[in-house]
Structure formats: structure tokens, C-alpha cells
Amino acid sequence: xxxxxxxxxxxxxxxxxxxxxKAEESVEVLxxxxxxxxxxxxxxxxxxxxKEGVSWKDMPVAGGSGxxxxxxLRARVTSGDPPTAVQMLGFDIRDWAEMGVxxxxxxxAQKQGWDKVIPAALQNFAKYDGxxxxxxxxxxxxxxxxxNKAALDKAGGKAPTNFDELVAMLDNFKSQGIIPLAHGGQPxxxxxxxxxxxxxxxxxxxxxxxxxxxxxxxxxxDTMRKVFDDMSKLKTYFDPNFSGRDWNLxxxxxxxxxxxxxxxxxxxxxxxxxxxxxxxTDFVCIRFPGTQGNVLFNADQFVMFDVGGDKRDAQLKxxxxxxxxxxxxxxxxxxxxxxxxxxxxGDQFDDCGKKGIQDVAEAAAKGTLMGSLAHGYAQPSxxxxxxxxxxxxxxxxxxxxxxxxxxxxxxxAAAK
Length: 416
Ligand code: GAL
Description:
alpha/beta, 416 residues, five-stranded mixed sheet, four-stranded mixed sheet, 19 helices, D-Maltodextrin-Binding Protein, domain 2, globular, binds beta-D-galactopyranose, 2 domains
């Protein structure tokens, strides 16, 4: 008779062998989720996949909005070794699809009924030539203002609803001796603030005309002049160290009460939550003053590169895991975003999340769910970067408002 010890050893060997077989199935994931809240959210996905026997090879490339990650991706594809899955936004997805290097996700999309539950605004980018080529993880939006609650209370407690009230609040923060407006001076962060100001000054129709249609008159007219003037005004509330600062370090200033507010997409909420801060108690989330009812969206999506048959099963498992409704809740409540599926209940989301879900639904219904320029959903990269150049140079005082108004349509035309 075999001893219990031998049986146990045998079982251990079988378990090991099973583990080894499972470990063969893996995904290498290129992403830029390296800040605290982002990494915590990504962990949910890693763990879910590991439970399914898919191991995770991490390829993080730090840099908000993925600028550096996209450079790393180009290098990998050029050397003939693309990662299996890549975090990507809007027009970049389309660019890679056009090159014919991405995999087809139709099977899993059909099985899970993506056509019925993923909003049209996202399908527009997740599908190419009628085929699903990306799995949308979430819907973020950029026109938010994150306010330190204690500072707001000292300023009278009423959140601003328009630009004048915003300025009054920032003046009060100044008198409290804190940084009134925390900003990180990197082109994509300048662009994120600028697009909120464009929407605030001109409303949804103007955003569509200037940013989505690239109308020359809108890019150089009086409304755009007010946008640049407002940017100059907002800059007077930055601290002297804003230049080059990462967005999450900028959020930390608000979290710690060193600054009063930050304009940033709702991934900032992930940082507040990581620091154990509660919405409504420690911080307040509002739409950037003047943009209520309108949403500038961006959505993180995973694109699966065509890397050969043996990796395909793991890729499909990852795509299916991403669209699983309970994953959508577990991930997005940590990340600060709202679900990419319209059928996911919002009751487990905090007040900012609930507001986000409602805002997206309302904006979609009235036609004001519009792509964020700064995060790749309004224009291809070349145009986005041409606009960033003008916005950043103006914000840094290198060009005047007159010069910016002249340069903006020229830069866009040259990049087309
Ligand atoms: C956005 C992305 C978010 C967040 C942010 C900062 O472009 O959609 O998920 O990561 O960049 O890195």
C-alpha cells in the first residue's frame, strides 16, 4: 500500500504539472497604468486572468495618456515582436487596424453580445471594417474638476458652476495660502485643461465645430480668443513648479490639501481613493464649470495583436474577462471610470461614479457625448499634437493670444 506521504507527493507533482501547463498560456500586456490607482485597477484584471490559468507578463511604460507607451509599441512592432495585448485609445486603434496587424475578436464579441451593450461612440473605434478589433475596458471623461473639500468649505462650500465662480473660488484658495489650481505642465495635461475650457467657453456646438470639424473660423475667432484668455487667467493660479509635473503628483497636492483643485479626467479619482479619501467628505467632483451636461469621453481599450495561433486562446480569454460585467464593476470602481457596457448596474459605484454613469447616458441621449481631443478620440495623433504645440507654447508664455489664434488653424492644416 502506498503511504499517505507518497500520495501527497504524487498529488503535489500533479498540481505542479497542471500549474506548468496553465502557465504556458500567457499574455504580455503593454500599458501605461503605473500610478497608484491605475495599478490597483489593473491588478483586478491580472488576478481574474490568473484564476483562469492565463499568466500575465507586464510591460508597463509610464507616462500619462500613453504617449511613451505608443512609442514603445512602434519599436516592438517594427522589430517584429508585438506584445499580445496593448492598451490603446481612439484613433491609434484605427491606425493599427489599417495596417492589418491586429487580431479579430468577433467570436467572443458575439458570444457576449458586445453589439448590444457597448455604446456606439465606443464601437466606432473598437470595430474596424465591421469586425471587433478591440475590447473596451471603460469610459473615462476629461471635463472634471477635483476639489479639496476642506478648502471648498473654507471658501463658503458652494462649488462653482461657471468661469466667474471658478475664479472667485480660486481667489479664495489663494487667500487661504494654498496653490489655487494644481496643474501639471505636460502637453497632454495642458490639452486636457484646454479642451475643458473650449467646452466651457463655447458649449457643445462650438466644441464640435472647432475640435471635431476643425472649422478654421472657429479655430481663430472670438470664442477661441476667450479660450486662450481664460487659459492665461487660469495660469495665474498655478504654482511655480507646475512645469513637467506628472498628473498623479499633481492630484496628490489636492489630496494633501496643499492645493485647492485640479482639472483632470476621472482617473484622478483613483488616486483619491488609493489615499483613502471619500467623495463628498474629503473631496468633491464636479463637471468643469460651464460644461455641465456635456461629456468629453475617452475609453481605454485592449487591442490584441496578431501574434500567431498559440497565443490566440489567451487573447480571447483576456477579451472575455474584460467585458465580464462583474469585472466591469470591480475594475471601474477602483479606476475612477464608468463601465464600457450600458447594462452594468451602478449601485456599487460611489457618488462620483454614479454621476459619471448618469452624465454619460444623458450626454449620449442628447448628442453631446464627444470625443476628447487630448486622449485620442477627436482627431488622429498628428492633429492632436499640432494643437498641443500651440496650446503649450501659449500656456508657457512663448506666444501671445494673437499668435496662438493665427497658428492654430495653420498647425491643423499642416498636420492634416
Ligand atoms: C488616459 C487613460 C486613463 C489614464 C490617464 C492617465 O489617457 O485613458 O486610463 O491612465 O491617461 O495616465
